[in-house]
Design brief:
The complex is a heterodimer.
Chain A (H helix, E strand, L loop, with lengths): L15 H31 L11 H13 L2 H6 L1 H28 L10 H31 L10 H19 L8 H20 L7 H10 L27 H9 L5 H4 L12 H14 L26 H5 L6 H14 L6 H13 L7 H10 L11 E4 L1 H6 L1 H17 L3 E3 L8 H5 L3 H18 L3 E4 L2 H8 L10 E4 H7 L12 E4 L13 H10 L1 E3 L28 H11 L4 E4 L2 H13 L6 E4 H6 L7
Parallel strand pairs in A: 1-2, 1-3, 3-4, 5-6, 5-7, 7-8
Chain B lengths: L2 E6 L2 E3 L21 E3 L1 H17 L1 E9 L4 H10 L3 E6 L8 H12 L6 E5 L10 H9 L3 E10 L3 E7 L5 E7 L2 E5 L11 H7 L3 E6 L32 H14 L5
Parallel strand pairs in B: 1-4, 1-6, 4-5, 5-11, 6-10, 7-10
Antiparallel strand pairs in B: 2-3, 7-8, 8-9
Helix pairs in contact in B: 2-5, 3-4
Classes of the chains: A mainly alpha, B alpha/beta.
Amino acid sequence: MMPSFGTPAEPAYFSLAEKLIFVALATASICAFWLRFRTVLAIILKARPDADFKLLPLTTRLKDFFWEVLCQAKVVRQRPLPGLAHAFVFWAFLVFALVTLNHCAVGLGIGFLESSGWLGRFYFYLAALFAAACAVGIAALFVRRFLVRPQWLGKKLSYESGVIAMLIFVLMATYLGAFWVTPASAGARILWWLHTLALFSFLPLIPHTKHLHLVLSPVSVFLSRGSFSHIPPLAGDEDFGLVAGTDLTRLAALQAYSCVECGRCTEHCPAANTGKVLNPKEIVLGLRSYLNESGPASTDLLLGRFIPPEAPFQCTTCGACEFQCPVGVEHLPLMIGLRRGAVNTGAWEDEAGGKLFNTLERMGNPLGSSAAERDKLIQKLKLPLFDGSQEYCLWLGCMGAYDPKGREIIADLTRILDHLGTSYGVLRKERCSGDSARRLGNDLLFQQLAETNLETIGQAGAKKMLSICPHCVRTIQEDWKEFGTPPAIEHHTEFLARHAGRLPRQQSKDKIVYHDPCYLGRYRDVYDEPRELVSLAGTLTEAPRSRERSFCCGAGGGLTFLGEETGERVSHHRAEELARTGAKTVAAACPFCNTMLRDALAAGSAPAPELLDIAQLVARGLPDKN
Amino acid sequence: MPMKIVVAIKQVPESGSPFRIDGSGRWIEEIDLNYTLNESDAYALEQALQLKEQHGGEVVALSAGPDRVQSVLRDALAKGADRAMHIRCGDGPDRDALGTARLLAAAIRPESPDLVLTGLQSDDVGHGQTGVLLAELLGMPHASLILQVEKSETGLNVKRELEEGWLQMIELPMPAVLTIQSGGNKLRYATLMGIKRAKTKEMRSIDAPELGVDTAAVAVLDHVSTIRKQKSGQILTGTPAQAAAALVEKLQFEARVL
């Protein structure tokens, strides 16, 4: 008989012995899977429940699940070629669910996909299409992992990944091969059994390898904490953050086991790229090793054997890792959680860090400046005090109040506000928003700063605020919620972009490269507004890494106050990248980026481009005062 | 040998506060002021905590003033002090260093400590006398301007700061009173765990009259005033050589900096 194209050939019958062997193999495979998987599941369930977890609203969860899991949108968009190869494998797995079920049913003599019917025929064809794509995809991924060997996959070759790739290839090849052999022939029988063996070998390999992500990552993505860098409130009097295994929550454990070790987090991490100890992937894997060896009931410290104690304190909290992660690992709650555990208990001993905390406590700002300096600035710039009659309360922030460059930004912003006829006033006194205290994990200090400010703002009756600092905006809007109702606050670029129509368009065609601050971009999803404003002042050009993929300036997470970096400087890496665009001007939108880049650009070999905040760029086009 | 250490600390207005002289002309308006721990007292507390960590024992934080001073005592408990004593008394122009020292001495005496530490001087009135007077009242040896304290076989080895970078090492027996200079140690930061643990620690309040000492001020404060800025510029004329000579003369005899 000629091979009948359209359906994969099946053996015509199975002897009792064959059926028994099949059942025995299936049972062994499923049992081996379950025995291993049960351990992982038990660890996750034994971990502490997440106190502030809410399942609702489901819409965001379903949307994320649809895009990130079913459509593989993030996987493909952030690493197009390997992403597509992965997507083909994943989609083939979805399509193969039914094929595999039918395959097993055939072994028991109860196959349900009829190759004679149009539906069965259509489905077999469809599966063949995906099988071909999957075979190509997995072969490409194999070549990438074992021959190309990108450094982010780690130094150690994962031979298990090779075995798994081979099994997947065999699964697809045997399925496709069956289209070419005669039904009921010996060839059909051989292919059927090969397919079966591959399938049953594959299953037990899942739970103890990174292929556990097949099972867990859809759950991780679906059950994520719901917003970027969500820092959960401490629960009860004995919660100081992530100190020991007993502090690990179910979500943290679930995410640790979901990690697929792809290294995207590390590839985009400013610390890992500049020779620091911190490697976000190793933090997640360290947590997994801790859970495997010590378990969620352990009171051994998390920082130590599995996670280097200095590593979390090298994090700029830029969030590139969390943004990149395709399997729903939320690195920031982890990183800040580990810092909280060390700082809230006093275990973290760092000269600069201790000094920062004491300065913030005594002076209310991280720069150690006297509040009288702020008063002098208010007098010098003739800034009106907020009395409730003005539309906006302008939050100066520590950089705006004390830093020379920050003061220039404030001066230019107020010129623009005057030009637009927008009324504003500043608070009589401000303390630091608590950004550094929050990100460094000092909950006591953060609470004191947030509560004092909330009281001042409440008394002043400010409802709408403006700030030049994305860190203040984020901290005030999101983090203060733990201690009261913060006023609505926006970044000056958001405000200015709304009034772009009334702002002067400058004649210059000079190239301006915009550096996305982490806390405005990834934290607040503000990408287009600053660009719109840059376009008023010249020709916008993009850095190789921009928008969601922007590379940190190195200041965030309190690091700007922690003194000398080990390894190379993050800011120098970024400054070089910005300077290489050939732009005449670097546009910044954060006073911290401004400080870091100012020094780093000056340290570069080529003549440094000019560095201006977007408010300064816009103000350049204003008519002179006289 | 474990040590029992009493640290006398003071709450002072934050240096960035808006200072306004009150109606009496003898004190400042207390509304609008934020208060904090006196800086050199923070170093005294740090020194006490480090000695306790090295040798064991007990650290008792002590402060005299109105109820608001309990916040610096609570912070001291949070940083590691074992218990706190609050002498409830007024703050203001009618309080002097001797009266305060008498109150502190009366509260310290029944504790019979091995060591009494306090800051060198307060950041507000800056008498720099309370610690010295305290030593006299307690009949203990005293050393001032101390940067570091080490326990020896027989007593204490301390490092004093002199002028122009000179240091002096002194041995003295215990019990003793030391006034601590800022900057000798790294200050620890307050932690959430510390604050939570502090809730269960003892804070004893004593009304000043209960101590039965005479606190009438012997040094009477007349009035307070703000510093009047007197900036004046002079342009020296003549040839550069003449101007330079005139400048040197002025620096020598008027400014007295050469």
